[in-house]
Amino acid sequence: MKTYKPIRIGRSDFHKIRDVNHHFRIWGEDNDPILFYLHGWADTGSTFQFVVDALKSNWRIIAPDLRGFGKSQHIRSNYWFPDYLADLDEMIQFYSTDKPAMLIGHSMGANIASLYAGIAPEKVSHLVNIEGFGLKESSPSNAPNNYRRWIEQQKQVPAFQSYSSIEELTPRVLKRSPNMTPDRALFVAQEWTETTEELINLRADPYHKLPNAVQYRRNEAEACWRKITASTLLVFGENTTFQEEMQLFKNNDDENGPFHDAVSECISDAGHMIHFEAPEMLAKIIEEFLLNL
Fold it and tell me: Given its phi and psi angles, is residue 165 left (phi above 0), alpha (psi -120 to 50 degrees) or beta?
């Protein structure tokens, strides 16, 4: 099987952000308008390649591997969500100090971008949230058991599965994104992994598999979302595996809803991993949103 051949060639940068060495995949020229892209859980910035190749205009796209993922430093300890917000703040300051940022995020990355856009609204001009639904509000009564589970699971950190070859992993990528082409699945499998001791291992810190000690607080997230002043686009996959969360998130008709001013787009024949299954349509929607405001 042949792997996908990129059209636009990116380059790698490494910068220390808040004492953690981060890898950045960067496409475009220094004088092009800057877009920041934040990937989802266990993904990498580099797999935005298919969308980058489908964009018609020239952009400088900055796609970090979030701490503990890809080629960024694995801290081998617990990961706390607020760190991603502070990391993003420093990344924006490092790469783009003269104007508010344009943020694109997928899944976990979209949750980071959306929270940040409400926490620092003056620093974000445009927000594209791709399948970043958040979670249901947690019950305080579950807190004792949740803390106990977190304590007990510290004793043995679960591992990510290893593979004997890239060819073993590629069908699993396709199973998760069935409308993806095999060459793109192979490209993703290569970007996600490294070879150590004759095994193919995911470039993700196993500590990410530990439960969070602090329960998700949707009310707090919505309070942040309501502070967003950036032009906002919400993108969903028709076949997303997060149907219930999507319906909760899409409730923008109520003027008190956190995203009532946002534009929404649903992409047909795509699931949660829209940037894998429908990158051309995603690129078209993003550019129409950014260029036609």
Answer: beta
- pTM given for the model: 0.95
- Cβ-contact 113, 121 below 8 angstroms: no
Phi-psi region of 77 (alpha: psi -120 to 50; beta: other; left: phi over 0): beta
pLDDT per residue as tens digits for the range 104-117: 999 999 999 999 99
Structure token pair of residue 31: 């004088």
- Mean pLDDT (whole number) for 153-168: 91
Instruction: Tally helices (H) and strands (E) across the chain.
Output: 10, 11
C-alpha dihedral (141, 143, 148, 150), degrees to nearest 10: 150
CATH classification number, 11-137+217-291, choose in 3.30.1360.40, 3.40.50.1820, 3.20.20.450, 1.20.120.450: 3.40.50.1820
Strand spans (E) along 84-192: 101-106, 124-130, 162-163
Which phi and psi angles does 33 have, rounded to 5°? -60, 140
Of residues 254 and 98, more confidence is placed in 98
Between the alpha carbon of residue 158 and those of residues 68, 74, 155, 205, 206, the distances in Å are 15, 15, 10, 10, 6
Would the pLDDT of 255 be above 80? no
Instruction: Name the phi and psi angles at 7, rounded to 5.
Output: -90, -50
CA atoms within 13 A on the CB side of 78: 14
DSSP 121: G
Separation between Cα atoms, residue 83 and residue 88, nearest integer Å: 9
Q: Where are the domains of the chain?
A: 11-137+217-291
Distance, in Å, from the CA atom of 78 to the CA atom of 242, rounded to the nearest integer, reads 26
Q: Give the pLDDT band of residue 254 (cuts 50, 70, 90).
A: low
Query: Residue 258: is its pLDDT beyond 70?
Result: yes
Q: CA 266, CA 237: separation in Å to the nearest integer?
A: 6
